[in-house]
Structures are given as structure tokens and as C-alpha cells.
Amino acid sequence: MRAPADHRAYPMATADDADPRDSVTNLRIPPHSVEAEQSVLGGLLIDGKAFAKVSEVINDGDFYRWEHRLIYGAVRDLTGAGSEIDVITVFEALQGLGKAEDVGGLAYLNSLAQSVPSATTVLRYAEIVRERSLLRGVIEATDRLQQRAFGRESIGAVLDEAKAEFGVIELRRGPGARKVPMLDMAAMRESAASVRWVVKGVIPAESLGMLYGASGTFKSFIALDAALHIAHGMPWMGRRTFHGPVIYIAAEGGAGLWKRIAAWHRQRRLQWQGAPFYVVPVAVDLCVDAWRVVDAAQAMGVHPSLVVVDTLSQTYAGEENSANEMAGYFRELGQRFRALWSCAVMLIHHSGHSATERPRGSSAIRANLDWMFGVFRDEQEMLATVACQKQKDTEGFGDASFRLLPHVLGQDEDGDEVSSLVARHLSSVDDVREAMEDEHRAGRGGHNHLFMSLLCNGQKESELRSAFYADCDADSAEARKKAFQRAKAWALKSKLIEVADGVVIVLNKGGFR
Asked: What pTM value is reported for the model?
């Protein structure tokens, strides 16, 4: 959330904040999130009824900023008196205490209420406030124990004090801020009816999914294409999108992303200015630093519909083959991003080295995802197929084809051409066939062309399969099998062939000779 112009978003460090071991320019500031505190207070000013649940998570002392403690205290007192909660009533309550100007006046209270996207996520922000408060408690307890350890007290007394100190902190941490939900049948029906989509029938809202593929399959270009369609509110793959901000964590070369973004906009003759698209241009260990992304988003007032993580390997410091560690990574993303913003999270990942038909790493990857799409490229063709391999609780979509087209942006300072590829969805069978014929003429024919070139009318499918396997350059038996199945499915969908009783009937060879 943006801090108002007339109020500091972050407290200035003072001599009291400094550790004597630190330099003057490296003052230590206790853990806190001003943006989360502002979001909690703004949410309460919008919907005062939320205080009952928020008060189960935090209290006045959990706020780092003194003025935020005053505002929260005023909301608490008004709630206890049965008064309505809004900007005016809270301002008048603070004014009666002579504290209105201390918190920034009516202007600051208004800015809190106006800058919060919605009050529905106030509990999530309250958890962040409590988390920072607990961390400050750990620091304070450690400082007290350090002083006692340097004194003349016995080790037993210090250890007893440590147990007491951290026992209080663990008790405050509690079994979890949120109560376990329990819905009756009517509530279940209402919940099921309220399922939302970021891309209708493809990417559900409040979901965690993956787009994976081997190197060079254009998965990042396709992910960017989806993200920019959502940011502009344009249909993707011919399906309606939920227009909203996108956060793109470009952990693999954030600086180079701009060329792709510029080329995408130029090819579609769209203006990039004003598009709600935000980039984190560095690698971030999301197991421990996901909250930093949240803080950065809150500071800019961003409540995303989609978060793209490009790639899993550059944002995960654990062991990919460990089921427990991978599950922990997914839980962190689910709690920090998906649950907080009710958004979709798209992870970009590599396929296995020998098993290109599935993502690299633990089997826990598939189990922890709501959806999973594979991206496959046919040899050297500038074409890619997106295949739905998992779609929780609903039927998946049919294979989608994308074409990668070069777009020249201009020249650099040395006069060399600057260009980038742009992904475009091919919406019809004719578009796919035309693109493949173009690729064949350019000398980039792939598995589909191999399939068509081997066809003979009346041929047994088993003979066609054997011939395909013999000429296919895939690196494993499983990969050859999948390549044949995809080529056959494409030919059937394109109405180029029919298969009856194991015999292939050629309907149209088109331009494939």
C-alpha cells in the first residue's frame, strides 16, 4: 500500500535503533511491515465488523508504529462501545483524546481507507503484523538473555529464563491465526458457485500451478504472453481473462525481459504505459524471502491477479527431489501469495533430463499443484504446444498451439539489430496447418511433418508407428511414444487422417509431401 505523501512510510533510524557494533550508516531497524499495518487499519476503516476476527490475531502492542497503535486502540474502543467504525468516528475518537494530529490527522485516516484494494484480506495482513511482532519479541528476549548470560547468574537460572521467555513467545504464536473453517451444505454450495478464473477454463483464481518444459520450448515467452493478456484484460487462448495486475518474478535475467515486453506490445500495436505489470528483476529465495515480495507489492499498492515465478530453480534453494522440502516451498507460496491476494501463482519449471514428459524433481510437485501444463516444441520449429496435464476439479482444455515470431525493435549503438520473439496463440486448425507448412518451407520440419511424410493410405497404424520410431530423433522410448501420440492427435484434430480398426485413412495431405 502506498504511504500518503504527507506521512512517512518508514520510520527514520535513530541512535536508539543502532547496535554499537554497526556503523552509523548501517543502523539496525527491528522487523516490521508498515504496509501490512496500514492495510490492516485501512481494512478496518472500510469494514469495522472485521475487528472481531482481527482482534483474535493481533493487539495494540503488535503494531510497530506508535500512531498505528493509537488508531487500532480507537477502533477497539469504538467497537467495544457498539459504535460504527469509519474514518470520521475514528478521527473524532482520537480528537477526543487529543491524539488526532499525532496520527497524521483526517488526511492520513482517509488515505488508509482509500488505498486498500479491499477489506477481504485484512486477516492475512494481520498475520504479517503479528509475525513481525513475534520476531521483535525474539530479538528483545535474546537481548535480555544476553545481558543475564554476561552477568554472574548461574547457567541454570539463565536457562530457566530462556525457557520462560521463549515459552511466552511460542504461546503467543498459538496454533494458527485462522480458525479451521467448517461449512454447512448451503455454504459449500455458495462456495462452489463462487469459483473464479484468471483465464476462464484455464487458470483458476486462488490457485498454484506450473508451466514446465525442456530448454528452448519457449515456456517463458508463453508465460509472458498470458501475463500481458491478463494485465491488459485481453482474452488469452480465445478465453476471457480477469483484468488485473501481474507480478512477474524474473529470476532468470530480469533486465532482458524488457525486450520481450516491448516486442509484444509493438507487434500488437498496444501502449505499454499504464499496464499494471510489475517485475521483480532479481533472483529471490522464496522459501525465506517471499514476504519481501509482499512488502514491495504493498508499498506500491499492488494486489495482483497473477504472480509468475520464472523459474522455480532460481527461487528455491532446497533439494528438488525432496518431497518435504518441495512441499514446504509450495506451502510458502500458497500462504504468502495465493491466500493473501486470492491470486493465481504460475511457476515456470524445467522438465526432467531423461523424462521430458514431466517436470524435473520430486513427485510431490504434481501432488501440490492445482494445475500443470507441459510445453513441447517439435524439433526446430518455431511452434510450441501447451498440453494440460492436470486441472484440479474440472476438465482440462485441449492442446493449444503457439507460434513464435521475431519482431525487430531497432538497432543498438553499434548498428546491430535488436529483436525479440513474441508468442502468438494459433486459434484454428487452419492457422496451425499454415504455420507448419511455413516452417516446413523454411527447413524446420518436425515430428508432425515426419508423421505426414510417412503416411500411406490404408497403412496399418502399427507399421506407421514403427517407421516413425525408426526416424524419430527423440532421446528415449517414452519420448518417441509421446511424440507419435501428439503427431497422431494433431493429424486427427486437423482432419488430415482417420483411424479405423487400426488402419490409417488419409483424408488430406495438404502441403506435407
From this structure: 0.71
